[in-house]
Amino acid sequence: MHAEEVLAALPAADVPGAVVGVRHHGTTSLAATGVTEPGGDVPLRADAVVRLSSNTKPLVAALTLLLVADGLLALDEPVDRLLPELAGRRVLSRLSAEPDTAGTVPALRPITVEDLLTMRMGFGFVPEGPCPTVDRAAELGLGFGPPDPRGLPAPDAWLARCASLPLLDQPGTAWRYELSFAVLGVLLARAAGRPLGDVLRDRLLAPLGMTDTGFVAGPERLVPAFVRDEDGGLALFDGVAESRWLAPPTFPDGRGGLVGTAADLLRFAGMLLDDGGALLDPAAVALMTTDHLTPAQRAAPGAAPFLDGGGWGFGVGVVASPVGTRYGWAGGLGTLWYSWPGHDLAAVLVTQVLPPTASVFGAFTRAIEDALAR
């Protein structure tokens, strides 16, 4: 399968431009179509640098497993050793309770490293109804919206604010998007004794040749990102000359702070297809790409809208498709990656439209699975 085949199946009019990358049986192809902005005349290049948003999570999960292999962490250890701010957690008695002691009970156990990877730490989005604690988290500036490198406090201050709130659920019991990965980023930096971006570069990005990925973008190949309004039009979310990604962030956000290219994301996907290559142990890859949720956790109101019938490994969604298991994840600014290990195939899609365009995402996945089914 070639990237051009997948690109031809996309409804091009639904986004200004798109890049597709495919790695199939070890052969890589990239193709681009369209322009960098609505009504513009600058062609979108295949090597465009984009905001990866939530496709940051799989990279941070892989880094966690590398630090586990280094002996700096253990999956089953409480995070309290490195994040003492999160020791002695209290938990809401119900989601609608106020975030004070009267509305909480003690946590039954500490949060573990694995809880962060599986997003079962007990805090995150609450789509099922009003929650004063989440409202308070938003007021504290913990980041409950699109990624914003300039909108968050420094890691220690961020974690202190997070620790001032009770958990929503007992640790390990419920899957909630996505605050766990912000906490995980702080944990990894403390475990390594260095800023998250430096650790990520040295342990993961540089060994894989992902030279265009990081928390800071150069303006040369960065393209603008857009947000879709109620009428379907596109307004500028983040430009190039004034981009919020041109300077190092105050808070290197493990949830969605990275920029990168389709080629770089495909290099990462290829490493996993190769059972970790020379970087990750195959057992770590298996842990990362296997669903760890119970049926009840997958179906819960806080998880079902995000997982769409699938499960969750370490930093990736895991889906049983008609052509075999696929794993990967999407970014809220319009990036999508899936791998079909049974077919030795990985594919990435890059756009820059918030929220992601369902017609384009759906056409991308269908085109690949229809071809694999033939």
UniProtKB/TrEMBL annotation:
Pfam families: Beta-lactamase (PF00144)
GO molecular function: hydrolase activity
Xref: Gene3D superfamilies: DD-peptidase/beta-lactamase superfamily
Entry keyword set: Hydrolase
InterPro entries associated with the record: Beta-lactam-related, Beta-lactam/transpept-like, Diverse_Enzym_Activities
UniProt keyword Hydrolase present: yes
Keyword Repeat: no
Span of domain Beta-lactamase-related: 7-367
PANTHER family (alphabetical): BETA-LACTAMASE FAMILY PROTEIN (AFU_ORTHOLOGUE AFUA_5G07500), BETA-LACTAMASE-RELATED
Protein name: Serine hydrolase
